[in-house]
Amino acid sequence: MNSSEKINEHYDLICAGGGIMSATLALMLKLIDKNQKILILERLDQVALESSAAWNNAGTGHSAFCEMNYTPEREDGSIDISKAIKVCAQFEKSKQFWSFLVERNFIENPKTFIHAVPHHSWVEGELNVAFLKKRVAEMKRYPMFEGMQFTEDAAEMQKWFPLMMTARDATEKIAASRMELGTEVNYGELTRTYFRILEEKFDTPVFTQHEVEDVDPEKNDDWLVKIKNLATKEKIHCDAEHVFIGAGGGALPLLQKVEIEEKEGYGGFPVSGEWLICNKREIIEKHHAKVYGKAEVGAPPMSMPHLDTRYIDGKRELLFGPFAGFSTKFLKQGSYLDLFKSIKWDNIPSMWGVFWHNIPLTKYLIEQVRMGHEDRMETLRKFVKNAKSHDWDLKVAGQRVQIIKRDEEEGGTLEFGTEVVHSKDGRITALLGASPGASVAVDIMVNLLHFVYPLKAETKEWQRKFSEMIPLWNQEIESNPEMFKKIRAQCSETLQINLPPKYI
Fold it and tell me: To which pathway does this protein belong (predicted)?
């Protein structure tokens, strides 16, 4: 990426952060209007080193196939799948956009970032088995979840994930679901690909080692963006009609400096992650699946343990986790003062309310931080019975900042999703939160472009462009099941994920 060229004085759009969100927004906007003048700024010396980096996230193409936190059980025992439907539809739009890029030869080989890896939910115990059975039955009623399988049969699970069934007691009450269309995505590689396209096809370089220090309003409705060149210490000022803050954990501190009332009340709760990484090739080759368990009582939704096949740096890997940690940093390469600096008069009630109403979460994090290697291995052995400690190493994953927002009843609530905060006129936008983040980036940016450019987005030209890039961008899947199936099949073929590899 480029940090040597001169930064100009005025831009249509400035993106703070060199991750998947800025990359998606910039590329989509350039594909719609190549004349847009865009500046992308990244504080580190390379793009995609924080949350977008492959080792720093789960790499799951979040489709709600296996993530049981998207399908809570109601008090009457029924299963609410409304969030699952939404997340799945959002990820399908991402696949449509990626397919468009492959078809138009912007991306030569989709295997560089996406692979077919079946998605499974796996549970233990009578109550959880009953829950999963109801979950699958409810989900199969909808076109995006057709083909989902459910079994309590150990022999069938032996075919699905043999590593997990080795040495397992035949009397255990377990069950699993399976969706062949599951995917594993290297979002770091995808981000770098986006930026290469921007640089080579649209003359839009990324300026690395450049940090946005502040954003102030100007009299002409533009924003004055104050930038620091971290290599030379030079201070740079430039104007922007629109500013997007897509800086991961760094988004909240920057948003707090912006003079818009919509930012008030927002806070952040940082959570770090850790993975157990298998170091034995023989074991890695025995598992080809993403298998998600159910979060324990009192644990946050993002703590669902899962045993994942991953493709990173051209190699197949096997990861288990995540294990939660606590750090006051908002970024992996951030400052231990980040959390304390984020506490402002307007968000103190929100922060206190979240702390007071989430004592079990605090207890859970303390327990996680105190875990040693053998403690983590015992958790893994629920999935892999004969796992040996020397076959697995610990790797620190990414840093997440969960959203804290105002709540009239509780003072504040802790949100486990992704949220866009924007000014009334849409001239400044910021993305807060974590999972399912990268998986739903395309849908987020379609919506963002509509409230950032409301008049242009309603023109026939822009609507045509959206339809070219994302055929179902404005359509409900349930209303167009046959069209959805056709487009999904086409995307699977284009992305080479239509035929999952055979099990070893």
Answer: Carbohydrate metabolism; tricarboxylic acid cycle; oxaloacetate from (S)-malate (quinone route): step 1/1
